[in-house]
Amino acid sequence: MASSVHLVSVPSFRRREISSSHRNFRKSITFTSVKKSVSVSCAAIPSESAQAAPEKPEIELEFIGPKPGADGPYPVDRATAISGEKLLRNIMLDNKIELYAAYGKVMNCGGGGSCGTCIVEIVDGKDLLNERTNTELRYLKKKPESWRLACQTIVGNKENSGKVVVQRLPQWKK
Ligand code: FES
């Protein structure tokens, strides 16, 4: 028995499969929808929120190396940070500025304030930092007042700006 299938063109559908079996005369037709892409363009409308936000105050940082370089002077690294947003430790690590001595490199507490290995000396700009925390008071009890734990030291207070000079590894300084 002959079978025939008439396909009618349907605008948004496409013929996918037609099968026929001579044994049971089963026929199946499957249609799948045809995706049409529509492009829409719209012009950017300037609004007040799109205007540039006022710039946040920044702290400029200078890091002095613990030993003079081969050519004489102490090496200096520089970085900037948004005031009051980061700990000194994180600024140093983000900028790949060496913070720890040999032991601290492998045994530091990850900034938890429990190892005391992230010592720095604030040579200038200490007023731009937070006060010594209780953790620092405990670890730095017998150390000079200018020494801080970098993981406890917040750089800036969100409003101030200026320059902080940091001596790296003051315990190594010659
Ligand atoms: S990283 Fe351990 S006390 Fe600062």
UniProtKB/TrEMBL annotation:
PANTHER family, A to Z: FERREDOXIN-2, MITOCHONDRIAL (PTHR23426:SF65), FERREDOXIN/ADRENODOXIN (PTHR23426)
Keyword Iron: yes
Pfam families, A to Z: Fer2
Gene: LOC104592303
Molecular-function GO terms, alphabetical: 2 iron, 2 sulfur cluster binding; electron transfer activity; metal ion binding
Gene Ontology BP annotations: electron transport chain; P450-containing electron transport chain
Matches recorded under InterPro entries: 2Fe-2S_ferredoxin-like_sf, 2Fe-2S_ferredoxin-type, Adrenodoxin-like, Beta-grasp_dom_sf
Species in which this protein is naturally found: Nelumbo nucifera
Identification of the protein by name: Photosynthetic NDH subunit of subcomplex B 3, chloroplastic
Superkingdom of the organism of origin: Eukaryota
Entry keyword set: 2Fe-2S, Iron, Iron-sulfur, Metal-binding
Cofactors demanded by this protein: [2Fe-2S] cluster
Domain 2Fe-2S ferredoxin-type per the UniProt entry, residue ranges: 107-155
Coiled-coil intervals: none
